[in-house]
Every structure is written in structure tokens, then in C-alpha cells.
Amino acid sequence: MIDLFIALSPLLTVGFGGLLLMLAEALGKPANNTGMSPDGAVVVDAGAGRSEELGLLATVILFSGAASSMGVWLADPATLGVELVSPWLQVDRYSLFFSFILCISGGLCTLLGGGYLEEHKIDRGEFFTLVVFSTVGAIALGFAGDLLTVFVALETMSLGVYCMIGLRRSSPRAGEAALKYFLLGSFAAAIMMFGAALLYAATGHTDLAGIGAFVGGLGGEASGETAMVIVGMLLMLIGMAFKISAVPFHMWAPDAYEGAPTPTTSFMAAAVKTAAFAVLLRILLIAFGDPRLMSWGAGWPPVMACLSVLSMTIANVIAGRQSSVKRMLAYSSISHAGYLLMGVCAAMRLPEEASASVMFYLAGYCISTIGAFGALILCGSRGKEAVSYADLAGIGRRHPAAAAAFALFVISLAGMPPTAGFFGKLYVFRATIDAELYSLAIIGLLNSIVGAYYYMKVLVFMYMREPIPGAPIAIPMRSSMVVSALIIAAALVVAIGVLPGALLEMAAVAAAALS
Amino acid sequence: MLPGSVVEHYLALSGAIFTLGAMGFLMRRNVLIQLMSIELMLNAVNLLLVSYNRVHAGNMTGQVFAFFVIAVAAAEAAVGLAIVLSYFRIRGTVQSDEADSLRH
Amino acid sequence: MVDSYLPMFLTFAISLIACTVMFTFGHFLGPKNPSPAKNMPFECGNDTEGAKFTRMNVKFYLTAILFVVFDIEVVFIYPWAVLFKGLGWVGFATMLMFIVSLLVALVYTWKKGGLEWES
Q1: What residues of B are in contact with residue A155 (Cβ under 8 Å)?
Q2: DSSP assignment of B82-99, as one string?
Q3: How far is residue A356's CA from residue A460's CA, in Å, rounded to a whole number?
Q4: Are the beta carbons of A23 and C112 separated by less than 8 Å?
Q5: pTM
Q6: For residue B29, what are the domain limits?
Q7: What is the CATH number of the domain that holds B79?
Q8: What structural domains and CATH numbers belong to chain C?
Q9: Cβ–Cβ contact B12 with C under 8 A
Q10: pLDDT at A58 over 50
């Protein structure tokens, strides 16, 4: 029993930490700068004006979640009596790998939030509780080995994110972004649930391994069960394509990313996408890992390949035409979903190598994208976010440290050495080529060349342009929390870029636990 | 255990309800009605789970699943209505096609 | 199989026919001479005034939603209560964790002023 608590400690640490954070927010002493409501009454909100301390507490909780994931990884989860919670929660090295990445991403986002919220006058303590609970959902999504836990974890993660987007309640753009993401997100969840219900109806199982075994036992001839399994699988894939924002299910993403406060955007781009890929890989390989469903003629590989090509191409073309850096990063995150789906496709022939490459890519992508959004936060101040390329003009000369950090993360997103992004791309492309999906690899390669153009545009504006005379010049904000988040992210990006072997080895061990 | 032919009627009914919900979500522009459509889709899910629990009668998985769907749907509705409310306070409308200020 | 649904269809059909007949005859045969006095609500309290749709105070919404959110959790407590003995201490501890997290949520709501009606 104690063993089991140790095995589940990443989830329990973050979950009970979230409850603690709620109490700390509600019971703590209200700060002095509480706001005024429109009719002149003083609003006393216990969580307001304390974003530094609450942010720090949330970061500590999330980083200790990461530490306990690492601890359980080292202690070998298989020996910890985890079959009691199996198949609902699968505590294996695959899920621990993701719980580690997700805790780190969440912790970096709360650090960013600690600086951002105060600077932009949306100093509400709810944000941190929501990040922590969303991270709980994301971790549980990595652990989930049953459609029931997939659903509950997915909703736990999403509900928190919906609220985090609408945090700035006076802004019509934020309200709109929250509304759009909420409507499409819950629509997608409902579609996915119907798929899950069909799978249960056909197979009598909700655990992924049971579904996989039943599908493997189905005969080749057409039957009602086969039809229901295929339809259920497609509906589940549609639901998950919404969550990873793959084209053509990406309509919500640019609007939601742009309208949300930037720390929320970074959480969505990093943690939500990572958790969705974690569960996507597990469902595809465990529940639909039957050789017939993994074949090129029938099953999911052609669907994933189409989504991959569309996501890469369309998102890259649109991203190049954006004038807002935040929106460009939103489209860039869609195109990254495309590269990742390429790796998912390769998992049809080489499950272990391809999953490991996707996991490596996700780790690098998470940290680089949070860093890029964090650098964007650092470049704007006093209620005015740096959003357009023009706002960044001349930053490189005026604020070399902020510009250097931004440049590093953008280079990593573009996939150039010596950064984490380069090796992520390298491994995903290698897995795709090893799986003999040559045309997919060529399309991906062309796309990363196109993608480099708009990433380089950021560098050009920062280092080679001067602001137009008379234009308002963005003054970078000062926040030790944002700076420390950027330092951690930069250190990780460079460390993975210089020594990719250790992480790749971990990813390979984790991927081996999956099959 | 229900005879197979009867349970297929439940499958058809549930599919019809789900389709109605999906059509309602896609065709109506009033956010509240879109929310109701989502609830309708989730109810189709519940119907399917509960009726097929009779076919796979060995355990209660389907019924327990339906409980979770109900509880999560309530949480989703609470958050959704809060978002709609805060949107209405700013914009004075609940039409989702008027939510276009992010495009420009 | 269709036979077993026959009584239900018959009930539908008969009620549909009965309604149609009654409304049709009433519509065509009944005398109609409305007057302001007749259009007033008959002995139903005060006369109505003001707009038909008014905006409600947001507190009603908040209370209703809090009720729904806390109320629905009973869905998980019923099955546990039915199987109380079979689940033993593990079940009890699990449910205790569940209730404690709800309690934290209640304290949070309270402290954040979600339950204040007067202010």
C-alpha cells in the first residue's frame, strides 16, 4: 500500500499541492492593492496582489512533482505494487517520462505567470491553482490506461485551461478566446466520448489493453463489431486531433493562443499538447496496435499522415504571413504538431524508435516554446505586450540579454544546432526514414526550410532593424521570476542540444515500457 | 442479457441523438443552445454506455462510466456558463458568430 | 417485436387524434369576442408590469451553479454507500480523500465570498 503511494507520488504531490495552494490563496492575508468594483465598493479578494508568493509556491509544488517522477523512475515503478491501480492508471516509465516533462513545463509557466500577472494588472491568484490542477489532469492523461481515466484526465486538464484563458475578464479578446476554445474543446471531447462509448459497445472493454486484445481477435470478415471499432477509432482520433490542434481541426488554436494571457498560451502550447500526444501514442499503439489497423491500406496511418502533411504545410504558410509574433508562434506550434504526427506515423512500423523520437522532440519543443513565449513576455511591459515584429525592432542592441534568450529559443524551434530542437527534428526524421516513409520525410524537410524563414524574421527584427522614429518603444519588464524561468529553460535547451544522448536513452527506455 | 436486435435499436437512437446534438452545435449560433447541444451529445454517450452494459453484463463498467460522464458534464457546464456570462458582460451578446474580434 | 410496441403506438395515435379533434372543434365552433377585461390574467395576483425579460442578479447564477457542482458529487457517494462493507477501509480512505478535496473547495468558495448573499 505504501509502495503504491510512492508509485503515485507525482500525481499525489501535484494534486494535494493544488489543494494546499487553494487554501493558501483563500486563507492568506489579502494584499493591500485590492481593486474597486464599478460601483465604488472595495473588492476584497484574498488571492489578489499576491502573485509572487503564490507563483513561487506553485512552482515549488510542480518542481517537486518533477523530482518525485524522477525518484519513481529510478526506483523502478514495476516493483511498487502498481497493478492495484492498473489498468486505470499505468505507472510505467513511459508515463513517468511525460509526468516529468509536464511538471517542468507547468513549473516554468507558473514562474512566467508570477512575473506577468502583476505587470499586466491581472493579479489573480486563481491562475496558479488552475495551472497546478491542469497539470494534474495532464499528468493523469499520461498515466491513463483506460478510456474512463482518459476522459476524466482530459477534462480536468481542459477545464482549467478554459478558465486560464479568460483570466483577464475585462478584455473582450480574452473572453472570446475562452469562449471559442471552450465550445470547440468540449465539442471535441463529446465526439471523442462517443467514440469511446462505441468502442465499449463493440468490445465490452474500456481498458486500452482489453480493446487491443479484442481487436486482435476479430476475424477478417466485415461484421458489426468491426464497423463499430473503426467508427469509434475515427471519432477518437478526431477528438484528439482537436486537442493537439492538427489541421483541419486547428481553427480554435490561433485565436485562443492570441487572446489568452501569454503564460496560459505557453501552457497550452507546451503541456496540453504534450499530454495529448502522450495519450495519442498510447491509444494508437495499445488499443489500435493490431497489425491490420497499423497497415497503410486500412487503419490509422493514412489518417495521421494526412493530418501531418496538412498541419505542417498550411500552418507554415500562414505563419509566414503573420504580423503578430504571438500569432506566428501559435501557427508554429500547429506546424510542430505536424512534425510530431510524422513521428507518430512512423510508429506504425517502428513503434519503439518512433515513440522515443516523438518523446524526445516533445521534451525539446516544450522547453523551447515556453522559453520563446517567456522571452516575448520579457520584451513587453506595463499592460502593453510586445506582439508585433515591429515591437521587437532593435531589442538586440538595447537589451542584449533578453534578445539573446529569444534568439536561442527561436533557433531551437527552427531546429538548428546546437539546440534541443535540432536533435528532436533529427531523430523524428531519422525514425520516419527508417520506417520507409520517404515522401512524408521529404515534405517535412521542405516544411522545416519554409519554417526557418519566419523564425529568422524574428532575429532580423531584433538585431538588424531599428524602431521607426516616434513609434512607442517596448520597455522590457523586470521580473526575477520570468528571468529565472528563462535561465532554466535556456540551460535545458542548451544541455539537451549539447548532450542529447542521455535524454534519448531515457526516451528509448520509456518507449520500451509502452509496448 | 438483451437480445441483440433490441440493443441495436438503442445504438440507432443514441446515434440519432448524437447527430442531432452535433448538427445543433454546428448550425445554431446561440452559445447557450450550442451548450445544450453538447449536453445532448454527452447524453447520447450515456445512453449507449448504459444500454450496452446489458450486453456486456459481466461488470458495471458502462454504468460507472456514465456516472463519470454525468459528473464531468456538470463541471463542464459550470465552467461553460461562467465563460458565457463573462463574455455577455463585455459584449452584450451570446451569439458565437459575433465573436470575431480576434480575426482583425 | 413490433407487437410489443403496438400499445405504445396506439396510445400516441389516440392521444394525437383526441387533441386534434378537440382543438379543431374548439377553434371553429367557439364564439370569439375578446375584450381588455377578458385578456387580463384571472385572479393571478398583481397585474404584470415592466419588461418581460429582465437581467437577474448574478448571485442567483452563482448559487445555482455551486449547488449543481456540489450536488452532482453524490453520484459517486451512492455506489460507495451501497458497497460500503465490501469496499472496506481502502474504500473508506478513498472516499475520505474525495470528501476532503470537496471540503477544501467549499472552504475556498466560502473564503472567496461565493456564499455571500448580502454584500
Answers
A1: 72, 75-76
A2: HHHHHHHHHHS--BGGG-
A3: 34
A4: no
A5: 0.90
A6: 4-93
A7: 1.10.287.3510
A8: 2-111 (1.20.58.1610)
A9: no
A10: yes
